[in-house]
Amino acid sequence: MSSNRRTERVGTMIRDELMNVLLKDISDPRLVDIIFTEVEVSKDLHLAWVYYDSRDGAQLSDKKRAEIEKGLKSATPFFRRKVGQIMASKFTPELRFKQDTHSGQVTHLMQLIEQSQQSPAGEE
Fold this sequence. Notes:
By secondary structure, this protein is of the alpha+beta class.
């Protein structure tokens, strides 16, 4: 159980650092419209799956997703170096990026809930 908390803590630390780097140090226009939603770290801390989505939660087109993946691939060594600087371990996990397919659904559901709360149907 403690290793699970450890991997969660490391994942959160990595996500926070990647977001800071993305906002402050990355100027690649392909990466302007994304956020990192979650990081899952393997138990041995050698691999981290970094999930990303669009900032507004909109569905990414295949063309846009391909551009983002190219941008992430070219920035991976820089991201990994920055993560290595904040980690207190002998090694830095390999970063693998995946589109987060769930956060867009959550955003859509939240919009529907907000719309239903604002609708005049509940007013008398």
